[in-house]
Design goal:
The protein is α/β, with parallel strands linked by helices and 374 residues long. It has two domains: 136 residues, Glycerate kinase, domain 1 (Rossmann fold); 220 residues, Glycerate kinase, domain 2 (Alpha-Beta Complex). Helices cover 36% and strands 19% of the residues. The protein contains 15 helices and 13 strands. It has a six-stranded mixed beta sheet, sandwiched between helices. Strands 2-1-11-12-13 form a five-stranded parallel beta sheet. It has a two-stranded antiparallel sheet with strand order 7-8. It starts with a strand and ends with a helix. Belongs to the glycerate kinase type-1 family. GO terms for molecular function: glycerate kinase activity. One of its GO terms (biological process) is organic acid phosphorylation. It holds the Pfam family Gly_kinase. This is Glycerate kinase.
C-alpha cells in the first residue's frame, strides 16, 4: 500500500476519549500490518474533548484553572494555550457531565465558570480565543459568563441577580461598562455545530432544556426568561443576535458571546480540524478512519465525522467510520462520504459489554479494516 492511514475519530461518549479510540484502532491496524504508517489525530466538534484534541497536537500547553462549576461548587478545569491562541472548553467549567443526575438544576445552573476560563485565557496574553461550546448544564444565555467578565445584571431595584437562567425573568438592566477591556483586543471564535436560535420552538430552552433536567413548565419559564434577556441585552448593545446561527448554543451562551463579546461563529468541527492540522496529515493518506459513539442523522448535519469525510473526499481519499452503534442506512452512509462503517454493536450486541469492552472491540475493528481496505 502507498500512503499512510489517518485515524481521526471523535470520542465515544461515556466510554473512550478520542485519543483512546484512535489508539485502539491503530493497535488493530498494526496487528495485521506491523509496518503500517498510522497517524493518530484525535478530533472534536467544539464540545467536550476540544481542549484534549488541541493538547494532543503537542503545539499547546495545558493550563489548569480552578473555576466555579455550574451549580456553584468549585471544579478543576483546564485550557490549552500557546503563544497566540487559547482553546477554552465550556464543558470543563459549565458542563452537564460535571453533575450527577440528581444534581441537575436547570433554573439555577450558570455559565459563570466559562467566564472565568476566558479570563484565564486573557491572562495568558493570547490574541485569539477559541471558545468551544457544547454539553452545557446551564440555560442562562451566557449571563453568568458575562458577569464573570465584569458585566452587572440587575433587577428593577438595581440589585444584582443570582445565578441561573430562571433569574433572567427579573432582569431589568445590564451594565457592560466594566467588561474586561482586554476582550476588545482578542479575536473570539465561537466554535459550535449547533445553529439553533436563542428562543422559540427551535431555541435553547425547548430543544436542549429537557436534557438538562427541565420539565415542561421550566422550559416555558426559561424560554420566556431568555426572551427578556435578549431584549435587555439588545438595548444595552444596540443590537440583538437572538436569531443568528449559534445563538442557542450551550443554553444561549452563544448569544451572550455573539452579542456582548463580538464573537465570530464558526463550525466547531472546522475549527478543531484546523487546530489539529488535519489537512496536513491528510496529504498523502491512502485511507481515513473516523467515527464517534453513535452514527446517526445528527452525524450528517455537520458533526465531525461527516466533516472529516467531506475533507477527505475532496482530495480523493476514502473514509471509513467506526462507531458504537449506527442507525444510518447504507445509502445515507454512502451519501455522507463513508465507504463503510464498523459498529461495535455488530461484534457485541449487549450495550453494557460493548461500552466496557470498547477498546478491545476496536482492536478487532482495526483488524477488519486492514483486511478489507489495506
Amino acid at each position: 500500500m502507498t500512503g499512510h492511514v489517518l485515524v481521526a475519530p471523535d470520542k465515544f461518549k461515556g466510554s473512550l476519549s478520542a485519543a483512546e479510540v484512535a489508539d485502539a484502532v491503530a493497535v488493530g491496524l498494526r496487528g495485521r500490518i506491523p509496518s503500517l504508517d498510522v497517524r493518530r489525530v484525535p478530533v472534536a466538534d467544539g464540545g467536550d474533548g476540544t481542549v484534549r484534541a488541541a493538547l494532543a497536537t503537542g503545539r499547546f500547553e495545558r493550563l489548569p484553572v480552578r473555576v466555579t462549576g455550574p451549580t456553584g461548587r468549585r471544579v478543576e478545569a483546564e485550557i490549552a494555550v500557546n503563544r497566540t491562541t487559547a482553546v477554552v472548553e465550556l464543558a470543563s467549567a459549565s458542563g452537564l457531565a460535571l453533575l450527577a443526575p440528581g444534581e441537575f438544576d436547570p433554573l439555577r445552573a450558570s455559565s459563570h465558570g466559562t467566564g472565568e476560563l476566558l479570563t484565564a485565557a486573557l491572562d495568558a496574553g493570547v490574541r485569539e480565543i477559541v471558545l468551544g461550546v457544547g454539553g452545557s448544564a446551564c440555560t442562562d444565555g451566557g449571563a453568568g459568563m458575562l458577569a464573570a467578565l465584569g458585566a452587572r445584571l440587575t433587577d428593577s431595584g438595581g440589585r444584582s441577580l443570582s445565578p441561573g437562567g430562571g433569574e433572567l425573568e427579573r432582569l431589568a438592566g445590564i451594565d457592560l461598562s466594566e467588561l474586561d477591556p482586554r476582550l476588545a483586543d482578542v479575536d473570539l471564535v465561537l466554535a459550535s455545530d449547533v445553529d439553533n436560535p436563542l428562543t422559540g420552538p427551535s431555541g435553547a430552552a425547548h430543544v436542549y432544556g429537557p436534557q438538562k433536567g427541565a420539565g415542561p413548565e421550566e422550559v416555558r419559564r426559561l424560554d420566556a426568561a431568555l426572551c427578556n434577556f435578549a431584549e435587555v441585552l439588545g438595548r444595552a448593545t444596540g443590537e440583538s443576535a437572538a436569531d443568528r446561527p449559534g445563538a442557542g448554543a450551550a443554553g444561549g451562551v452563544g448569544y451572550g458571546a455573539l452579542t456582548a463579546l463580538s464573537a465570530r461563529f464558526r463550525s466547531g468541527s472546522d475549527v478543531v480540524l484546523e487546530l489539529v492540522g488535519f489537512d496536513r496529515d491528510l496529504a498523502g493518506a491512502a485511507l481515513v478512519v473516523t467515527g464517534e459513539g453513535a452514527l446517526d442523522e445528527q452525524t450528517l448535519r455537520g458533526k465531525v465525522p461527516a466533516t472529516v469525510a467531506a475533507r477527505a473526499a475532496k482530495v480523493g481519499v476514502p473514509t471509513v467510520a467506526v462507531a458504537g452503534k449506527c442507525s444510518l442506512s447504507e445509502h445515507r452512509l454512502r451519501g455522507g462520504g463513508f465507504s463503510a462503517v464498523y459498529a461495535l454493536a455488530h461484534l457485541q450486541p449487549d450495550p453494557g459489554r460493548s461500552i466496557r469492552g470498547a477498546a478491545s472491540l476496536l482492536h478487532r475493528v482495526g483488524e477488519h479494516i486492514a483486511d478489507d481496505f489495506l
